[in-house]
Amino acid sequence: MNPIRASLLVASCLILCPAAFAASEGFHLEAEAGVVLSTGNADSQSFNFKQQSTYGFDVNLFKFFGKFLSTSASGVETARSWNLGARYERSLASNFSLFAGQALESDIFSGVIQRYNTDAGGKYFFVKEEAFDWSAEAGYRLSVENRYAGQVSQNYLRFYSEANRAWTKTFTTRLSVEYLPNLTQNTDYQLNGELSGNAAISELFAIKVGYLLKYRNVPVAPATRTTDTQLTTALVAKL
After folding, report:
1. Are 38 and 75 in contact (CB under 8 A)?
2. pLDDT, tens only, 3-41
3. Cα 15 from Cα 237, distance rounded (Å)
4. Distance (Å, rounded) from C-alpha 4 to C-alpha 177?
5. What is the spatial distance between Cα 192 and Cα 230, in angstroms, rounded to a whole number?
6. Is 124 within 8 Å of 96 (Cβ atoms)?
7. What is the pLDDT of residues 133-172, one digit of tens each?
8. How many CB atoms lie within 10 A of CB 6?
9. How many other CB atoms sit within 10 Å of the CB of residue 138?
10. Which of 19, 33, 59, 162 has its CA 20 to 30 A from that of 184?
11. Element (H or E) spanning 10, and its range?
12. Which domains are present in the chain?
């Protein structure tokens, strides 16, 4: 399938399908899309789509998320990754909840054809205010990776922290850090971090600039580098 058509198909699934439920009580949707096309002396294409939808009632919260990234230059693909997943949270107190989740992801240029992540743990809010919130998560992850050399199952501890700050009515920032020590192979730890800023241009749309860093101490062959980074600009819609 043509890369452009494939990207548009995935974008439709990530953005339009959850929107069908967005008008229902308890549903919230956040979707973003970024596209860069260059022609002439240098031909390149870059597509970035991401969505997260939630549905909550009583003390229960369901989350559904997806992401797709594709980049090519002069007809040669240079990056492709995606993920899909769901998560359930149950609140036990105003600032504490338990969660369980399942996700499927792929990053072939980092050596991972598919990765299945099963998560369970707890989430605690240190601060939970309208203009600022700060939370942390701790739990366990079972990760099953299909690599070019075969399948590998590994056990991780997972520590995650996220802070969101509304500086003005139209500008917000988000910072997240994730640390994954490997219980199966102690040298293969992972560290991920993301910093982003959103500037609202209307009640519905905003411009987002984000920087993502992914570090893996032991790269998966044929990948040789320990660090991957992404700098993205996208249009965000919230319902």
Report:
1. no
2. 444 444 444 444 444 443 333 348 999 999 998 877 776
3. 9
4. 32
5. 12
6. yes
7. 999 999 999 999 999 999 999 999 999 999 999 999 999 9
8. 14
9. 13
10. 162
11. helix 3-19
12. 3-238 (2.40.160.40)
